[in-house]
Amino acid sequence: MKRDAIDRLVEDQLRDWEEVRLRTMSLRDVKVKDVTVDGVPWRAQFNPARVVSTGAKVDKASIAARPCFLCRDNRPQCQHVHQWGNYEILVNPFPIFPGHLTIASCRHEPQSVNGHVGDMLRLACELEGYTVFYNGPQCGASAPDHLHFQAVPSEYMPLDRRYPFKRHYFIDSQERVGEALSELLDSLSAYGDEPMVNIALRAVDSSTIEAVVVPRRAHRPQCYDTVKVSPGAVDVFGTLITVSEADFDAVDSSLAASVFNDVAFVSHELSVNVGIMSAPEIQYELHGSFESDAEGAEFRPLSSDSYFTLKDVTIGVDFHWQRKENQSFLGKLKLKKSGDLTLALNIVPVEDYLTSVISSEMSADASLELLKAHAVISRSWVLAQICHKASASGHVDMLDTPEERVKWYDHDDHVDFDVCADDHCQRYQGITRASRAKVRSAILSTWGEVLMYGDELCDARFSKCCGGAFEEFQYCWEPRRHDYLVAARDAVDGAPLPDLTVEANAREWILGRPDAFCADVDDSILAQVLNNYDRETVNFYRWTVDYDVDELSAIVRERSGIDFGEIRDLVPLARGTSGRIYRLKIVGSKRTMIVGKELEIRKWLSRSHLYSSAFVVERTLHGFRLHGAGWGHGVGLCQIGAAVMGERGFNYRQILSHYFKDAEIRSIY
Questions:
Q1: What is the CATH number of the domain that holds 226?
Q2: In what order do the strands lie in the sheet containing 239-242?
Q3: pTM
Q4: Is residue 120 situated within a structural domain?
């Protein structure tokens, strides 16, 4: 049913039913106000005509004592009908928004979503520009004895938004959303009973459906006897309806929070403290409304659209793409002295942080399944860092003797904040790269989902390109093995992975080009996956670097601070499961020394960063040629490989299962 046909149905109905026309006209002057619920923007509406729903008695005796107002024989003769299969599309006589529709079953049967998910999906596809919603019999339905849906123009009920309570978000093909909804509703049903839910869905385009399910714990809040708020789908999707001016005046952020605490499953999202930059003086601009503390060192936004901008933020520190740019951020700005420098910190809800991270780490044009996988990984990682810091236990991460230097870089390097904003942790570049709908969909679809191994939150890692084989955690960071980060090929053909800790095997592997998801990627996939500055690196899977002796000797001296004299040899002493070297002997005319682990090796052998430590050494006439594999540490998810999996039709759960052995996806808020 095209939008103009729906509009004609509404116009004809308003022409022939004066009461409904007047109620619809009154919506122009209806009182509304904005509140926040745990920091999430919400709206309240004063609509006295809705007392028929808000005040409806839905106990069995009351329902039995009144005629069903949705049955055809009991409806006014002036009410127009548009027949749609086994349903009748009607203009709602007590509208909340202009164009409000009721879609009633032709048969008098109980309100139940079981067996009718397909009807909702088809309605969402048929009603152009409309969002279709469902109120369970104990979740806002004023006619629990008669199956019906409702629908409003989508602009009045945006679904891709934040919610202060538990909800399930889906965006995919009609078939896949239908399967996901049916599976979810089955899991929410107790012994086959009707689940307590509100559901809303709309067609994003001809092939994509967006759906949200809000599980309910109660029909009405404890305050119902004093403030008559009876939440249905409209209320839980953004607009609380009140039917008296006194109730409208009573609704504030505190009351709204208590309402949802009573009727929904409230989730408390964590915040993360991100170190953005340090400088002798921080230049910043505040946009919108902020309040500051007495010292003027912390600035808290007073509205959801307020943000701040930091000038000359360095990104890609010590990498070949290092540069400065201005970046803007949501959340709090905190300025903190640290010696002669000032730190700029951003305190932001985890999900806002993630929206930027997956855009900053990947192109926002990546496949939706890849972005979902990355959202789960990044959420798991940052929450693991917060938990680790909360239970801070010191460890030694460096061996420094005249014969050997072993160092790794991890979250414990940070004292004044949880994580930094650059590649040392996860790229976080604020709202500069977080504005695309697909990224928001990935966050909403996986909200609160993390990787767990038993009762342990996974320390989920990722790198650009594994080079065909997964590295294990202990060869890059502290000597601790994680059973979900184990050696395997980046393929599903079942071919065994050679033992790449053996030098001869590693040499054959790196000099060859074994089949893998991350091998032979075409430019169109890379363009989807990588930001512009990442595409400045051309070769990912296999690469070579040439040095003459003088050049390499100078680089090692500059980067290590040690004068080896003329470099005479590079000797791998120990490799990890992907062939990455974690102990390398550097032989010079003045000094010989062992260096590790993988990132320290990469730092010493390049003025930026060597792509990876999975390399073999070839002596040339004038120096050295390094033949290498992959980009980054190779632990956990391979971003290039995962991108290929997404393009080949693997969903995010399958992608995560491939890279994190036996880990489970669980929702923790």
A1: 3.30.428.70
A2: 31-37, 40-46, 239-242
A3: 0.83
A4: yes
